[in-house]
């Protein structure tokens, strides 16, 4: 296989009339999905090849048709959430440097203001065009499997989001194994929680297409109403959830499972953060036959590289292991001297090698060089590894345990955030001299300390102009000076102790 559209083609041959995707009141069969994706692919392929395309809309059937249209044309997509602040959209736009934007009715006007210098096409207009197999065949002949499929932007410590580039080959390598281990099949109804600019959604989309399952897109609005969310999962007889830890905990925090239990669920895979055992137990007690799996990995290595199937008979002391590698992925620990760690309990940086390793950060060679490095223990040829910045150690059973971060990257409400990016945005405001952002894990709260001549309300408003709402600190604290360590660095510990 060279291109993910082959998943769609194969399933279409077997299950052409089967429902491929459901989005609230809309449905699309495998055949319709293939045809519409080919129409979009024809339009794109008649113009460009192996170039980035901005998809400017919320998740849904139309976004999926656009993604697959890009793949048919041998191009790659980056979904920009229209709700992002304008400065962030500008950053992504200038990094990705795309010529074409695909949008929908709802976002067309906004797209035309943000991207007035680019070609903006409404998906509903595109869908009316015709398939030209000559164009699609030409794109297919020119395509190779290391061409990118998508670029996903994540928070960047330099203040500009980083675009992780992932190839078809990496996705195919991962999805083939992922669907095999966890026995995804054509009878599955896969409830998609993640937004389409998060790579958790990659697992939903391509697993479903590969096995000929039905992808059920759960609209964002349901996540602010757990009972509606549970009604939706139950009514649609969902069998599979590959969700962020924060989304599963949202249901248990509001005691959603006391209202209704989605009994049809056979497997729940979760990732993104440490799963609190208290919440996991609430899920497991209500679903005694369901398989639960902890999966781990950063976007840069294509979804996940480690997994641990929860053993109901085992007593987990304080946390679950992140487990063992997927096939064809080498996951290892390096100590500060770049030596491989094999002893149990010794902490090191989690590093990954394999087809899964992404192609780097788009249009950002310097940051790529920092994280996608040469394997320091292989001096004979260039073996690229990804240094995750995550710390880990092996337990008694040789399983990997997650042990926090090396740097100031955090997970907050399911979002990956580099605290330096918030600090940079604070300091870009003229009235702010210095800024320091701290995350209180216990309270799950972001604190923004600053020295400057601006009141908290105005600072919050200004921050919202450049940062997504979830990155704006819930508490802003104006100080005359910051406590310093002996080395003259900001004493973060003291800041928290004194002002918490
Ligand atoms: P993202 O690129 O948004 O998927 O975020 C990846 C980061 O989330 C990893 O580098 C880890 O810090 C964290 N993470 C992902 N999965 C897990 C997990 N199962 N347990 C603990 N932390 C996780």
Can you put this structure into words, describing what you see?
By secondary structure, this protein is α/β, with parallel strands linked by helices. The protein has three domains: 179 residues, 3-Layer(aba) Sandwich (Rossmann fold), CATH 3.40.50.12780; 169 residues, Rossmann fold (3-Layer(aba) Sandwich); 91 residues, ANL, C-terminal domain (GMP Synthetase, Chain A, domain 3), CATH 3.30.300.30. 33% of the residues lie in helices and 27% in strands. It is built from 17 helices and 26 strands. A nine-stranded mixed sheet has the order 2-1-10-9-11-12-13-14-15. Strands 16, 17, 19, 20 and 21 form a five-stranded antiparallel sheet that branches. Helix 1 packs parallel to helix 9. The longest helix has 16 residues. The chain is globular and about 70 Å long. Bound molecules: adenosine monophosphate. Adenosine monophosphate (AMP) binds next to strand 13, strand 20 and strand 21.
């Amino acid at each position: 296989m060279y291109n993910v559209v082959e998943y769609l083609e194969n399933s279409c041959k077997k299950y052409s009339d089967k429902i491929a995707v459901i989005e609230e009141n809309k449905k699309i069969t495998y055949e319709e999905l293939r045809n519409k994706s080919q129409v979009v692919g024809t339009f794109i392929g008649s113009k460009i090849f192996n170039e980035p395309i901005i998809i400017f809309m919320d998740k849904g059937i139309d976004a999926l048709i656009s993604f697959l249209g890009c793949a048919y044309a041998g191009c790659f997509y980056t979904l920009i959430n229209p709700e992002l602040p304008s400065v962030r959209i500008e950053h992504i736009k200038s990094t990705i440097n795309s010529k074409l934007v695909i949008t929908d009715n709802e976002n067309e006007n906004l797209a035309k203001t943000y991207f007035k210098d680019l070609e903006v096409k409404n998906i509903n207009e595109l869908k009316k065009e015709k398939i030209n197999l000559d164009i699609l065949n030409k794109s297919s002949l020119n395509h190779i499997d290391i061409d990118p499929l998508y670029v996903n932007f994540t928070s960047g410590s330099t203040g500009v989001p980083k675009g992780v580039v992932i190839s078809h080959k990496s996705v195919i390598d991962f999805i083939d194994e992922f669907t095999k281990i966890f026995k995804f099949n054509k009878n599955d109804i896969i409830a998609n929680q993640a937004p389409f600019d998060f790579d958790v959604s990659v697992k939903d989309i391509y697993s479903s297409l590969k096995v000929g399952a039905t992808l059920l897109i759960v609209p964002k609005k349901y996540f602010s109403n757990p009972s509606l969310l549970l009604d939706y999962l139950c009514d649609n007889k969902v069998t599979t959830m590959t969700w962020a830890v924060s989304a599963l905990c949202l249901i248990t925090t509001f005691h959603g499972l006391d209202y209704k239990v989605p009994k049809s669920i056979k497997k729940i895979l979760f990732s993104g953060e440490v799963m609190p055992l208290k919440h996991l137990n609430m899920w497991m007690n209500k679903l005694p036959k369901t398989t639960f799996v902890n999966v781990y990995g950063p976007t840069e290595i294509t979804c996940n590289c480690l997994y641990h199937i929860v053993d109901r008979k085992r007593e987990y002391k304080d946390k679950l292991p992140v487990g063992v590698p997927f096939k064809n992925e080498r996951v290892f620990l390096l100590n500060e001297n770049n030596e491989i760690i094999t002893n149990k309990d010794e902490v090191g940086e989690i590093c990954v090698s394999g087809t899964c390793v992404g192609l780097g950060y788009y249009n950002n060679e310097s940051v790529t060089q920092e994280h996608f490095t040469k394997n320091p223990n292989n001096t004979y040829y260039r073996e690229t590894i990804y240094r995750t910045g995550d710390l880990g150690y092996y337990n008694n059973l040789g399983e990997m345990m997650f042990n926090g971060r090396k740097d100031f990257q955090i997970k907050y409400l399911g979002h990956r955030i580099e605290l330096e990016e918030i600090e940079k945005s604070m300091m870009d405001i003229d009235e702010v001299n210095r800024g320091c952002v701290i995350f209180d894990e216990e309270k799950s709260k972001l604190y923004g300390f600053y020295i400057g001549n601006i009141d908290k309300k105005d600072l919050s408003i200004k921050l919202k102009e450049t940062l997504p709402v979830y990155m704006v600190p819930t508490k802003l604290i104006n100080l005359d000076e910051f406590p310093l360590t002996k080395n003259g660095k900001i004493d973060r510990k003291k800041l928290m102790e004194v002002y918490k």
